[in-house]
């Protein structure tokens, strides 16, 4: 629906509103999608508001909580910027989960226009103001009729004084311009001819976790199943991780099961890929028997809850050859003319252990409902966070529908989109309802490309796309990590944890695991996707992760995406940035070269809001430094120190 | 209405379309307003078009002439740009006046997807393609059913070959990939599951004059009335002017008539301001008796027509104290409580000879209709161009309604907005329907501010805002002209005529008239607004204007706003630019310093499309020069030569 002031008159007998409300922000795709905030956050909305002529205009932003009928309201500010000075801004704060709506109302303030005009006439030396004062008295009397009794008395008295022939013109004008009279009038505006932005604009209020969180990913089969995983939760919590993400926990198909390193055939003991979902034991709603029982799952959820950790499950809507749906609902799958099923492939790559669902099949409604039911089943079992596998290979309309259905009942649930594809689809998934998204971060390892990408994410995309910066995944071991050794892991950990309010690592990262299956591949050698490992939580990078997680919790500046400013360093290998939120400031410098020492001058700009000289403390080792606006010498030597993460002490 | 792909299924039994069409351009304010082109121009539309998965997508732009039901169609091009590579473009050409509409349709090409997939499998060495080939044969047979007989035979034969067990796999694949088979399939696409951009987008096709024209403004009372004005038309046509614009030609009020230099009282012989419209002789539909009769007016229209000149009238919707409407329709005006009428004022400025209409009065419908009738009356009398006085002091909804009403009946009529106010209203008037607009040009006299402003006009605003660069007006004699002498006039004339496809001068400009009413004022001394002059068309700048007008007619590059690129000159006082349209190129260099010689190196960029070395001819004096890509030395000396306007000879 169009976002503009309708020219249709409010009442048939009245002319259309004179006020134009245009270019409201944030409005996504003409109002088709909702912008995102988290509960407690403020949204500043803006619009051009103007009318013909020179009258004084007032504007208010109005907003409404999910399911409520009453509108809240706050005055908007006129942002003066010379010839472009028709921009108004107002602030909304959302304090409940779910879909809010907001609009803008604007009106001509005839009494303020009159005050403005008569003051200028008096200044201009016009002597006879009788007609003008009579007009003012009428406006004051009209205001008195709208006002509450105390204000009405003030306004009526003023109207009498304004027309009192015993007073001088100056006195009569003064009677209308007196502070209490103006204040009383402002409390009783005439909004009968106001214009309203229509229709109202949607705004989704998500839980804080949608914006801010530190993720840890592990395969539970490598940690002793669900029970063993529960045992590691307290340590993860102590390390400052907020979300524990598990790849699919369902039965794994046996037919065409993949062996180690994606081998086409599996040995009898090979566990297969957790993404080949479904076996005789059940499908997407079942647990893999070797991981544990539903009671074990409930216990894991409880343990997570009691340690303030969210459990995130994988939603991978695809089936192994043994999934019950293949026999129960063959109509939900792609068939060839000869009746054979089409397995997943992206030629020449073939995924013989996986069959895609046919989202556009004739029975699509039942299929879509079944997938919603799967999701709601896990919500009922206590899951509040879903990492969605390959959403870009399923119809966008499906996600928009399913996420709206789940969040309509459970607005606390959040969905992370694991899409690695072109920008248009990445952005579209964010708009369609995903609360977080994977990004191109793993492939941005140089200073300039990080600066470009983060600027895009923190400005134009920020209203609908929340990045989750995973430093590695079971599928992505970037060449930078393969060849950079521990300094590369340190650089990436600091970048992930300080560039994005949400970041994550997949286990093995803290051990600096960096051997690819073959040169040129981003796949791990002996990938955990096809094998069970014996994992323990004791890698050498954990202290650094813990220090970063502590700093992230202590500093609001690290909990939001906007408020990011890159700093010049006079060295292309040194990236530096200021993060700000209110008065909280964190400065970060990272040597992105894992092989050589790099030195430079970090130029702290006056726009950082910092004083001319100040003391900073490095959250990574407690070291203190005296810094100042302008250039600050920094040298970062791989093996000794890869980064500074500096909080301002004084 | 929202411009996006609706997720609602086309038929109830089908899943929603998988194709997403998003971010279509040019779409103004979410589809609320129409972009503008002129008849014969091409509009390139674009959008992001994409779907889940890896299927081959096709897209077409479809467009429809005003009042027609049939859609025309052209294929869209996929613009590949790496990760942002989901942009498609297509071209529309409009060949009739009025409001067109366009949309985009996109669909998955299953057969092309299959061809792509099977080719990759063959390349990848997959040996058993039996299932795949059977699938392809089905798709070919389905295409045959959609195709015309000749194509159907080709497709059916191919389907048979694809499944022929006597052939090798390579031969069978080749049978599907053969050129004639592909071509036949492309002619019979399956668009039953296509997605369409909804609703269709509006596009206004205006007459060429809305985009391109040279205007001359004169007060007919200074030229012997309508008859005298008609006598000067042949000379104006010979000088290359396309539009003759007359300030209001109606009876002028006597009460509160202004005297020379805006004096509060007029002498008995003072003619008054033509903008104080209305007297005993009539109002907006009447002619001032001293200018001539309706027959004289008809004769003037005929003279203009026969010389290819458009006559432009002024629409100033305001009334003198003697306008018949004040007595016939007092309800159309603002009254004070004591019954007095409010004259126009912008304190401390007072326009005692003018009363504003109350567009929001109770009887607004009758008032609006009366103003429409005034306009249509002059259309009936042969006027096709209206210069609208101060549209920003009347409601935007009024203009939107009125212009749509006029152009619904007479799409050949164009309206020029004379608004000098803040950007938001200037832009809004363009969107609301004005075909051309006055600009800030007279106040942009320095190189950098001209470059900034022209960039804005020729890019982001170009779809809805057509500038008309008047170098002066009866109200605006800029200080630059007051102090710069003839060189300043030359500079401004060249800039106006070569920076904007539509430009104009108000008579006196060609005589370098430059005396203000007082220091610091932009008003003329002894302004023609309040006095009758004895004008003749013989000013010293006319030869330059004629040369510029000839060049403007000869060069498509000077007839459109886009295709503008500024060039470096290594001198802040030398502005230089390339104008291009197709293969036509014009280079312009202007010394904006009217007092001193300026020299520099005009750096012709490779992006100009010009060869490494070329010959140019100056349209102002015929001088020829050898230029090249890179730096070209230029020296411009006030009094000798203020500018180069260079056409490329070879």
UniProtKB/TrEMBL annotation, chains A, B:
The record marks 475 as: Transition state stabilizer. It is an enzyme of class 2 (transferase). It comes from the Bacteria. Alpha-maltose 1-phosphate binds at residues 258, 318, 353, 390, 529-530. Residues 213-552 form the Glycosyl hydrolase family 13 catalytic domain. Maltosyltransferase that uses maltose 1-phosphate (M1P) as the sugar donor to elongate linear or branched alpha-(1->4)-glucans. Is involved in a branched alpha-glucan biosynthetic pathway from trehalose, together with TreS, Mak and GlgB. Belongs to the glycosyl hydrolase 13 family. GlgE subfamily. This is Alpha-1,4-glucan:maltose-1-phosphate maltosyltransferase. It comes from Paraconexibacter antarcticus. The gene is glgE.
């Amino acid at each position: 629906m169009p976002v503009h002031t309708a020219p249709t008159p409010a009442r048939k007998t009245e002319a259309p509103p004179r006020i134009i409300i245009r270019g409201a922000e944030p409005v996504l795709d003409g109002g088709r999608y909702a912008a995102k905030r988290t509960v407690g956050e403020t949204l500043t909305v803006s619009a051009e508001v103007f009318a013909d002529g020179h009258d004084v205009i007032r504007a208010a932003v109005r907003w409404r909580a999910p399911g409520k009928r009453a509108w809240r309201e706050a005055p908007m500010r006129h942002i003066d910027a010379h010839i472009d000075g028709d921009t108004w801004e107002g602030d909304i704060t959302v304090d409940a989960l779910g879909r809010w709506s907001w609009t803008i109302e604007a009106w001509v303030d005839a009494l303020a226009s009159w005050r403005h005009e008569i003051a200028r006439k008096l200044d201009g030396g016009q002597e006879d103001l009788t007609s003008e004062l009579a007009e003012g008295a009428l406006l004051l009397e009209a205001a008195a009729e709208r006002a509450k009794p105390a204000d009405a008395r003030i306004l009526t008295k003023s109207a009498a004084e304004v027309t009192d022939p015993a007073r001088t013109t100056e006195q009569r004008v003064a009677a209308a311009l007196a502070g209490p009279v103006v204040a009383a009038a402002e409390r009783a505006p005439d909004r009968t001819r106001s214009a309203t932005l229509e229709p109202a604009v949607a705004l989704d209020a998500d839980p804080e976790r949608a914006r801010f969180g530190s993720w840890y990913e592990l395969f539970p089969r490598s940690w002793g199943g669900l029970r063993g995983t529960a045992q590691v939760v307290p340590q993860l919590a102590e390390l400052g991780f907020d979300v524990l993400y598990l790849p699919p926990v369902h039965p794994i198909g046996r037919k065409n099961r993949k062996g180690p390193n994606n081998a086409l055939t599996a040995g009898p003991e090979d566990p297969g890929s957790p993404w080949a979902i479904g076996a005789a034991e059940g499908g997407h709603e079942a647990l893999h028997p070797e991981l544990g029982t539903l009671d074990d799952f409930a216990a894991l959820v409880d343990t997570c809850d009691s340690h303030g950790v969210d459990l995130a499950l994988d939603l991978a809507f695809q089936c192994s050859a043994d999934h019950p749906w293949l026999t129960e609902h063959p109509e939900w799958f792609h068939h060839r003319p000869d009746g054979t099923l089409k397995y997943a492939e992206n030629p020449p790559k073939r995924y013989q252990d996986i069959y895609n669902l046919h989202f556009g099949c004739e029975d699509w409604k039942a299929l879509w409902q079944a997938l919603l039911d799967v999701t709601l089943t896990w919500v009922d079992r206590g899951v509040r966070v879903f990492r969605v596998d390959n959403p870009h290979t399923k119809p966008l309309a499906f996600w928009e529908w399913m996420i709206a259905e789940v969040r309509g009942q459970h607005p606390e649930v959040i969905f992370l989109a694991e899409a690695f594809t072109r920008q248009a689809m990445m952005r579209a998934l964010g708009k369609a309802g995903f609360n977080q998204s994977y990004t191109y971060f793993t492939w941005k390892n140089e200073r300039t490309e990080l600066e470009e990408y983060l600027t895009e994410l923190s400005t134009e995309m920020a209203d609908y796309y929340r990045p989750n910066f995973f430093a590695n995944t079971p599928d992505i071991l970037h060449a930078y990590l393969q060849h950079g050794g521990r300094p590369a892991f340190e650089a990436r950990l600091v970048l992930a944890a300080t560039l994005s309010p949400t970041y994550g690592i997949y286990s093995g990262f803290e051990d600096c695991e960096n051997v690819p299956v073959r040169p040129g591949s981003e796949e791990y050698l002996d990938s955990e996707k096809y094998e069970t490992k014996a994992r323990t939580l004791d890698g050498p990078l954990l202290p650094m992760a813990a220090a970063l997680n502590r700093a992230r919790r202590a500093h609001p500046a690290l909990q939001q995406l906007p408020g990011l400013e890159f700093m010049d360093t006079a060295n292309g290998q040194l990236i530096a940035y200021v993060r700000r939120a209110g008065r909280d400031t964190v400065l970060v410098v990272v040597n992105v070269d894992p092989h050589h020492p790099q030195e430079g001058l970090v130029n702290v700009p006056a726009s950082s809001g910092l004083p001319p000289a100040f003391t900073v403390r490095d959250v990574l080792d407690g070291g203190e430094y005296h810094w100042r606006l302008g250039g600050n010498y920094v040298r970062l030597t791989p093996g000794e120190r890869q980064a500074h993460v500096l909080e301002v002490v004084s």
